[in-house]
Each structure stands twice: as structure tokens, then as C-alpha cells.
Amino acid sequence: MSQTIHRFVALDVHKSYVVVGALDTRQEVVLHPRRVSLLQLDGWAKKHLKPTDAIVLEATSNAWYIHDLLEPLVARVMVANPYLVKLIAASFVKTDKRDTLVLARLLQANIIPEVWVPPPHVRELRALVSHRRRLVSQRTAAKNRLWSVLMRHNIMPPAGQVFSTTHRDFWERLPISSSEELRTRQDVAIIDHLSPLIEEVDKELARLSAEETWAPQAAFLVQLPGMGLLTAMTLLGAIGDITRFASAKKLVGYSGMGSRVYDSGQTHRTGRITKQGRREVRSVMIEAAWVAVRRHPFWKAKFERLEDRIGKQKAIVAIARKLLVVVWHVLTAQVADRQADPRAVACSLMTWATRYGLATSLGMPRAAFVCRELDRLGIGQAMNQFQYNGYDYHFPLPMAATVTEQEAAAGG
Which of 63, 127, 205, 277 has the fewest C-beta atoms under 10 angstroms from its C-beta? Predict the structure, then answer.
């Protein structure tokens, strides 16, 4: 890189400004650290940056905006992992100017711990999944507060879904004080307001899952036990491009589900998972693992063996880690799971097709949608029917070939 780069520019990014500094190939300061407002950064960059510059900035909330702004102007823009940079360049004297020059020196030495810059469609999916998670968190908090009211007053809730609209009279007639009645009424209103918003986000995730960008990968995740639409889209957003993980071990480490290791001298021990990775991957994989051990014989047997040896909580984490390894293999090789039952997979695909009328929105019968995805997975060629929710759904044996021909004619 030093043969084509003449300056090494570092940006210490803040909410409303950046501190910019640069070194040359001999690590001499050629641009003393200065503060530039984010509003003026575009004009400053076009005036001062050169095509032979390399730039580094730490990953922050607005790092992708700055990356996209500067990338066309210079030779390379790198986004650094702030946690690893801190480990490399820890100092008891910390100022914006010192941090900027330290980043520039790390860049010149080519030891920047770089993070992957997701393309726009991955960023959009991640943002949508995060938005949904915040909405669900707010709704859950409101529900917990309402449960607290019932527990404090020893009130038994009605049978069924206590927060459904059919039980609004129950919440309105609680024998509680006026101030608690106000809080209860507002928490119920919060739930009523957030539920349709969450449903709207789910509908958008379903639409994205059928787009050509995500549909080929989503099918290989939906086939797995415990994987639904939301789990699949959360994983795809977090993973982005599966080819950036050279092995399943790399993906496990990225999720934070790898074990802590201490190996020095005569001492070797492993501990709990590191939790240094994407939290949403760990969350959805644990949820998927619980479903898998309840419904799938293969994973249930594995879980029972582990539970006897290490306990329930550690066992479910181990199952989640093993299931994530399967995720890496099916996405990398684009193959169906070895434990896949074609009829069970057809039911999972049918749920995907039915969710928010997805197959109908694509202009195809649900059975044809299922047949197309089974062909994509390369399983179930001998099937001509399957049962879903007590009903038999039929598709003729040549259906798969017919759908494939239609896609080829349409350029898909």
C-alpha cells in the first residue's frame, strides 16, 4: 500500500465534527490535527484530499456516511474496529489530536484492525431489524408493567391472550387507584399503538425476503429447524456476505458464541462464551435452538445428551453454536441440511409463503412457491403433495420444471 499511497489520513469522528490529521510515508506530520465540522466535511474533503491518500476512521454511528462520502475522492477508506484499536494503542493521555495521529500511524504501519463495510442493502436490512427490536422492547416493557399491576394487587388475569383487544374491558375495570388506572390505561394504549407498527415492519421484512437479493439465501435458512422468517432475515442482515467468513469457526467467533480460552505454560482452560460479537445473532440462535430441540428428533437427542453432562443452559448454548455451524455450511455450499425432512421443510416454506400473503403478492399459488423453493434447495423432487394445517396441498411432479422454465423465460 505504501508504494501507491503518499499520505495516511486519520479521522477522529464525533457527533458534530471530525478531527483530521495526516502523516507521510516517513511518519512525519504533514497535516496537523484540525477540527472540521461535519457540515463542512464534504467541501473540505474535495479541496484537501487527493487520489493518493488513504483514510482511516473508527466505526461509529455515522461511519458509513463518512465512508461513502470520502471513498470516491481517495485511494482507500478503511473503517477500524474501535475495540481492537483501543487494545493496540491504549494510552493514559487521551486527546482528540493524539488519537488522530495514533490512528494515522497505525494506518501507515498497515496494522489497522479493519471491519467489513456493509453495502447499502445490508445496512438497510440491519437498520430495519434494529428498528423492530426497539419497538418490541418498548411493547414488552409496557406488558411487564401491566403484569406488575396484576401481581401487586393479586388479580388473576382472564384466560387466553390477556393483552388482546377482546380483554380491554378487563383492564378498564381493574379495582386500582386513579393514578394506577392512568398508568395502566396508557400502557395499554402503548401496546395498541406499537402492535400495528411491528406488524408493518414484519410485512416489510417479508417483502424483502422475497426479493432476489435475499430470497436465495433466505430459503436455505428457512429450511432449518427453528428458523422462521424473522430469524432468517435477522441472520442475513448480521452476516451480510457469507463468503467473508473463511470457516464456520470465524462465524461463531463473529457471533460471540466462541469459548473463552486461557492457554499459557502448563495451564489450559476454556470458559464461557466471549459475547464479543453481534448480540442479535446470539439471541435469535438461542431462540432457534429451543425450537429445534423441541421439534426436531436429531437436535432433541443431541440436547438431551448434553443436558445430562453440562446442564440445560450450557447445553442450549452449545446447540445454538452447532446450529450456527450448520448455517455457515448451508449458506456457503448452497445445499440443503443433511437432516432436512422434505415434508417438514415444505411446511416451513408454506408458512413463509403464507406470511402476509407473500406468494399472492408475487402472483403465484402458494404450492408453486413451495415447489420453487424446494427445487432451489434440491430436495423433495419425488413429492407431489404435502400437508399443512390439516389440509392437503398438491403440485404435479413436472411443476418444479415448469416454474424453473418460467423463471428462465423471465430472466430470473
Answer: 127
